[in-house]
């Protein structure tokens, strides 16, 4: 290989390495805690429904359980709804999951950034959808509340508390989404700085070798 080929190879090698090697930018702790908060906020209402589906009355009026066909087809509805809600809540971890731990090292940074952006867009859509759904439930709580029209006792307040926690779900999810998108921007900027530094370094090597050939 001639000197021109070697110089070109030395110029391209570091650029190839920085292109293929992912740039690591740790996710801030507060973003991780927000993702956990979103998941935890959805759990109380899930547990409440599962207890009802398992045959526990939880102090609910017999007339309400009969109208909801619990136990019966209504119990299956509660199980399916709880499973869907649990799956949706677990999606918050996609915002903070370190995918680099499970993928080859040669996966480029752009792929991780694109994945984070997609997760962020999905997180925004999910937070907005949850805000609408939970907001409608709050407005029509008298129609959702199993204890509607009854004197509130400890069971009624427990039910209210379980569903009240879901109000924090979209709030935590929205915060985690913002953190995820900010991390994606930081990762892209860090990758760009590293790429530019490698480009300057490689260009310097190429210029030095060209100058040496000229002097000879």
Automatic annotation (TrEMBL):
Tell me the keywords, alphabetical order: Membrane, Transmembrane, Transmembrane helix
| Superkingdom | Bacteria
Q: Transmembrane region positions?
A: 30-54, 74-99, 111-134, 154-184
* UniProt name for this protein: Uncharacterized protein
Q: Upper lineage ranks? A: Bacteria, Bacillati, Actinomycetota, Actinomycetes, Mycobacteriales
């Amino acid at each position: 290989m001639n000197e021109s080929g070697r110089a070109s190879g030395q110029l391209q090698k570091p650029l190839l390495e920085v292109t293929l090697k992912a740039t690591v930018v740790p996710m801030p702790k507060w973003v991780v805690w927000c993702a956990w908060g979103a998941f935890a906020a959805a759990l109380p209402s899930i547990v409440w429904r599962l207890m009802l589906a398992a045959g526990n009355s939880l102090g609910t009026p017999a007339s309400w359980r009969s109208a909801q066909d619990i136990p019966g087809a209504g119990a299956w509805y509660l199980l399916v709804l709880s499973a869907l809600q649990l799956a949706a809540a677990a999606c918050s971890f996609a915002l903070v999951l370190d995918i680099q731990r499970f993928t080859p090292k040669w996966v480029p940074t752009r792929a991780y950034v694109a994945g984070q952006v997609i997760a962020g867009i999905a997180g925004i859509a999910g937070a907005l959808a949850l805000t609408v759904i939970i907001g409608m439930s709050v407005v029509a709580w008298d129609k959702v509340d199993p204890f509607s029209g009854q004197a509130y006792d400890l069971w009624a307040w427990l039910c209210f508390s379980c569903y009240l926690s879901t109000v924090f779900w979209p709030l935590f999810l929205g915060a985690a989404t913002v953190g995820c998108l900010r991390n994606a921007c930081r990762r892209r900027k860090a990758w760009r700085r590293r790429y530019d530094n490698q480009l300057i370094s490689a260009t310097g090597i190429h210029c030095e070798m060209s100058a040496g050939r000229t002097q000879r």
